[in-house]
Amino acid sequence: MSSLYSQYVEALKDSPSPALYLDLNAFEKNISWAKENAGGKKIRVATKSIRSVELIKKVLASNSVFQGLMTFTLAESLWLRDLGFKDILIGYPTVDRKSLEILARNPQEITLMVDLPEHIELLAKYNAPFRICLDLDLSMDLPFVRFGVYRSALQKLETLQALLSVIKKYPQIRLVGAMGYEAQIAGVMDKESWLMRFLKKLSIKQLRKRRALMVEEIQKAGFKLEFVNGGGTGSIQSTREEKVVTEITVGSGFFAPVLFDHYQDFTLTPAMGFTLPVVRKPLPGLITCLGGGYIASGENVALKTPTPYLPHGLKLLANEGAGEVQTPMSCPQNISLNIGDVVFMRHAKAGEACERFSHIHLIRGSQLEGVVATYRGDGQTIL
Ligand SMILES: Cc1ncc(COP(=O)(O)O)c(C=O)c1O
After folding, report:
1. Which amino acid residue places its CA nearest to atom 7 of ligand 1?
2. What is the residue with the minimal CA distance to atom 13 of ligand 1?
3. Does the domain made of 3-21+267-373 have the CATH classification 3.50.50.60?
4. 73: Cβ below 6 Å to ligand 1?
5. Is residue 253 in contact with ligand 1, taking CB distance under 6 Å?
6. Does the pLDDT of residue 1 top 80, yes or no?
7. Burial 367-381 (b: 16+ CB within 10 A, else e)
8. Among the atoms of ligand 1, which is closest to the Cα of residue 250?
9. E-assigned strand segments in the chain
10. Which atom of ligand 1 is nearest to the CA of 48?
């Protein structure tokens, strides 16, 4: 068994299993990686990819390059503001009227995302000085397929101009930012595909022009932007090259989930995972663990299933995968696992595992350094 396996087992020997854990040395290494790769831009911390107040605080406190949050709902943002967080940009539009009523009474520190006249018209009803940010579409449309995601409607200059005219009708609303998320760069694995690497190169060229043009258009219309946000963990090395961008969003890179094992241009250190206890041995060469079926969102492919991590050599079974209550795995002869031992798994994505656990066990070497709550542990189920 590897020394990492023995260290983790020692650190978690008194903890229940399944348990979510974070290797603090690896987490700090990934924080340093983000800081060193920011290229002079600020880094806005993506809360959806962390989902733990204490860990968000740890990232923000680690260096002044980390400033502000990108949150995922208005209810979450109000909660975080109550806890003292500042400079909160919600990455996605909101139609949550109840939370908007609360925000209208005090719109400070929270910026709402918009890309449609309907978004503006809904906000205008509150007659409050809401802060808003425009979500610019940076996807690349190819003849039969979009290289990118379907989110913002703001792709053409004319559509942007029309929306800017709508915003001008409501002088109480304050346009303070622009964001373009190049999901096809940040979120697409490319290590095993020359085609993806080629498409990414092509798309980066196109999106750089479009982002610069659109920001220029906003400024020409008389709006003074406080920030231009771009990117994610997977695109930091290209987003930082854009002059017009003032800040890059990073979240999932801190935990380094399995999807980031498949990027060509950078290597992160696996930091977060979860234990499963061995509860059965149905046949020689097989173990069955309790729990494990924590499937990641998005396109339905095998990679979205958790991956056995330690000890090295365990494999999920194609017919069963990771199960709702039980997960069988093949276990090579040289690995000796007994009933009650634990195995370590990694989630495909970063924040979603936190929805399965109330706490995260913080490991340093073979020591348990502490336990912090996830959003779920704080009684918050956001999405
Ligand atoms: C608007 C936006 N920015 C940035 C990101 C990337 O965040 P991360 O670094 O957590 O992958 C995402 C991820 O979906 C996003 O939706």
Report:
1. 232
2. 232
3. no
4. no
5. yes
6. no
7. ebeebbbbbbbbebe
8. 9
9. 19-23, 42-46, 66-71, 88-90, 110-114, 131-136, 140-141, 146-147, 174-180, 227-230, 247-250, 272-280, 286-290, 307-310, 315-316, 326-330, 342-346, 359-364, 367-373
10. 10
Q: What is the mean pLDDT of residues 41-67?
A: 98
pLDDT per residue as tens digits for the range 235-271: 999 999 999 999 999 999 999 999 999 999 999 999 9
What residue type is 115 in one-letter code?
D
Task: State the closest ligand 1 atom to the C-alpha of 249, by its place in the atom list counted from 1.
Answer: 4
Q: Specify the residue with its C-alpha closest to ligand 1, atom 5.
A: 232
Please say whether the beta carbons of 263 and 276 come within 8 A: no
Judge if the beta carbon of residue 34 lies within 6 A of ligand 1.
Answer: no
Q: Is 185 near ligand 1, meaning CB less than 6 Å away?
A: no
Cα dihedral 114/119/121/124 (nearest 10): -60
Q: 66-95: per-residue pLDDT in tens? A: 999 999 999 999 999 999 999 999 999 999
pTM: 0.97
Ligand 1 centroid to Cα of residue 250, in Å, is 7
113 alpha carbon to ligand 1 midpoint, in Å?
14
The domain limits of the chain are 3-21+267-373, 38-254
Report the CATH architecture of 38-254. Answer: Alpha-Beta Barrel (3.20)
Could you tell me the distance, in angstroms and rounded to a whole number, from the CA of residue 218 to the centre of ligand 1?
23
Summarize the chain as % helix, strand, coil (round to 5): 35, 25, 45
Q: Is the CB of residue 113 less than 8 Å from the CB of residue 72?
A: no
At residue 2, the pLDDT reads 81
